[in-house]
């Protein structure tokens, strides 16, 4: 029973069933049509020959003399009414083959065709019609709409008593042709089904081969190796399925690669402060030290613990964002106002390093977006803090707020050390640090820009960077401007 659950068996079975129904229907229709055509042709031949005999002067003369010679070539008989019975004038005809009821029907004007099976298994086809005597008009029509053969009387030699003409032919040719057709159909239909079963099974197997490859690939794929792909050679539905499967494997491979990289980087980032904490604690416990030494060791441990806590919080933020578990408390926000407050908050830090920090708004009114104010403040604070960290004393940082078409734009421009061109494509990758712009010694964990990108993307915006080493860096955040009809939900 398990074999019937296979798509290959089901497709082949349905294909053969439909093909068998069509072949049987076609064969039956062909047989019926040929049988009808041959029968009609023979009936027409009998009727034409009957008309020829009825119109023949020699036949009428023989009837007038009461005797028909056996040279007419067909199975012919004439039945002439005589008293209460009939007188048979026959040529090459067995009288027992004729039913008297047929004769009565013909005398009453109902001509017709009849089939008789003889004792030896042969079949005869008869046409029976009435010959009208002279002076009788308005002959009735037979069942086929034909006039009785008396319409063709020519002279007064026809006997005055009505005569019924019976003409017959063997049905051997018709039945032999139908028997040959039956034999052809009985052989060709099963043979066609057998050949079609083989061909259909081959085609189905070939069509489903990519599915088998997909199954095999899925069975052999392991978390440690997602590089396996399915060979695709067709452009049909199966080919598209295989390409979709390959694309899914590619996405999974990249995701697992990022996950492994993320885990390795996180382990490395956490190992450093843990190593410092362990070293300081070990040194403090190794021998008696002064209170100042213990205080210094504990201060280092506290600093490294804070670094670990900050890193873990950032990791948790990214993980929640990836899983979509961190909901955004969306509301209308004035981006210009947020920029003003961020500059006010960051101004002491910039002043301490001797850096000029300012906000420039290019519009007189508010710049509304629909989003989570806390998260967007975090984006701008991270970018501003990053700019301050990498700008030397005497440098400048400017935050521009403006409205461009359908977007609200923040642009954070600094005159800091800049980012080398080979590092620009990777600055938003997690734990990525350029040698100069993102060194761990400056206090960065390599997650700030990744968090910024995640927040901006969840708000339907984009964040880009442009930089020139030794000149400065510009980060641009674009968020959809809020219309009065906006009802955005996150």
Secondary structure layout plus pairing:
Elements lengths: L6 H48 L2 H9 L9 E8 L2 E7 L8 H8 L4 E6 L5 E9 L31 E8 L1 H36 L1 H12 L16 H50 L4 H33 L6 E5 H18 L3 E6 L6 E5 H17 L6 E9 L2 E8 L33 H11 L3 E7 L3 E9 L10
Parallel strand pairs: 7-9
Antiparallel strand pairs: 1-2, 1-5, 3-4, 4-5, 6-8, 9-10, 10-12, 11-12
Task: Provide a quick synopsis of the model.
The chain is an alpha+beta fold and 490 residues long. It contains ten helices and twelve strands.
What does the model show?
By secondary structure, this protein is of the alpha+beta class. The protein has ten helices and twelve strands. A five-stranded antiparallel sheet has the order 2-1-5-4-3, sandwiched between helices. Helix 7 packs parallel to helix 10. The radius of gyration is 53 Å and the shape is rod-shaped.
Labels describing this entry:
10 helices; Heat Shock Protein 90; 3 domains; five-stranded antiparallel beta sheet; 12 strands; rod-shaped; 490 residues; alpha+beta; Helix Hairpins
- Give the rounded overall mean pLDDT: 78
Please give the count of helices.
Answer: 10
Number of domains: 3
> What best-fitting shape do the alpha-carbon axes yield?
rod-shaped
Low-pLDDT stretches are 134-159
Please list the strands of the largest sheet in the order they lie side by side. 2-1-5-4-3
Count the E strands: 12
Structural class by secondary-structure content: alpha+beta
Give the SSE order as H and E letters. Answer: HHEEHEEEHHHHEHEEHEEHEE
């Amino acid at each position: 029973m398990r074999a019937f659950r296979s798509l290959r068996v089901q497709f082949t079975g349905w294909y053969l069933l439909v093909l068998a129904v069509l072949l049987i229907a076609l064969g039956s229709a062909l047989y019926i049509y040929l049988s009808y055509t041959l029968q009609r042709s023979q009936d027409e031949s009998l009727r034409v020959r009957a008309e020829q005999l009825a119109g023949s002067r020699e036949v009428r003369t023989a009837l007038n003399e009461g005797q028909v010679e056996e040279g007419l070539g067909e199975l012919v008989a004439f039945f002439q009414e005589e008293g209460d019975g009939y007188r048979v004038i026959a040529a090459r005809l067995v009288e027992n083959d004729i039913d008297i009821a047929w004769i009565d029907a013909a005398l009453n004007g109902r001509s017709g065709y009849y089939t008789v099976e003889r004792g030896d298994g042969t079949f005869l086809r008869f046409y029976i019609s009435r010959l009208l005597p002279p002076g009788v008009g308005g002959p009735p029509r037979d069942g086929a709409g034909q006039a009785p053969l008396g319409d063709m009387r020519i002279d007064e030699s026809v006997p005055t008593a009505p005569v019924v003409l019976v003409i017959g032919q063997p049905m051997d040719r018709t039945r032999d042709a139908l028997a040959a057709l039956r034999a052809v159909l009985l052989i060709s239909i099963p043979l066609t089904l057998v050949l079609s079963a083989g061909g259909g099974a081959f085609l189905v197997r070939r069509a489903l081969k990519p599915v088998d490859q997909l199954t095999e690939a899925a069975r052999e794929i392991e978390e440690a190796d997602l590089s396996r792909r399915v060979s695709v050679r067709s452009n049909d539905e199966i080919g598209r399925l295989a390409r979709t499967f390959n694309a899914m494997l590619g996405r999974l491979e990249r995701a697992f690669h990022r996950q492994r990289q993320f885990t390795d980087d996180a382990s490395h980032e956490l190992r450093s402060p843990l190593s410092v904490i362990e070293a300081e604690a070990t040194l403090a416990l190794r021998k008696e030290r002064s209170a100042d030494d213990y205080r210094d060791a504990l201060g280092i441990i506290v600093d490294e613990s804070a670094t670990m806590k900050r890193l873990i919080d950032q990791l948790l933020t990214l993980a929640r964002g990836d899983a979509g578990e961190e909901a955004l408390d969306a509301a209308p926000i004035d981006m210009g106002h947020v920029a003003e407050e961020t500059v006010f908050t960051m101004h002491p830090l910039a002043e301490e390093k001797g850096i000029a920090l300012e906000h420039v708004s290019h519009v007189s009114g508010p710049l509304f977006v629909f989003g989570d104010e806390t998260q967007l403040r975090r984006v701008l604070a991270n970018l501003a803090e990053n700019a301050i960290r990498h700008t030397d004393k005497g440098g400048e940082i400017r935050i521009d707020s403006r409205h461009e078409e359908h977007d609200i734009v923040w642009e954070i421009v600094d005159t800091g050390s800049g980012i080398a061109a080979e590092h620009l494509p990777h600055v938003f990758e997690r734990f990525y640090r350029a040698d100069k712009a993102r060194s761990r010694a400056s206090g960065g964990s390599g997650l700030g820009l990744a968090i910024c990108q995640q927040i901006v993307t969840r708000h339907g915006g984009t964040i880009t960077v442009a930089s020139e080493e030794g000149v400065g860096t510009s980060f641009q955040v674009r968020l959809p401007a809020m219309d009065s009809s906006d009802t955005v939900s996150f």
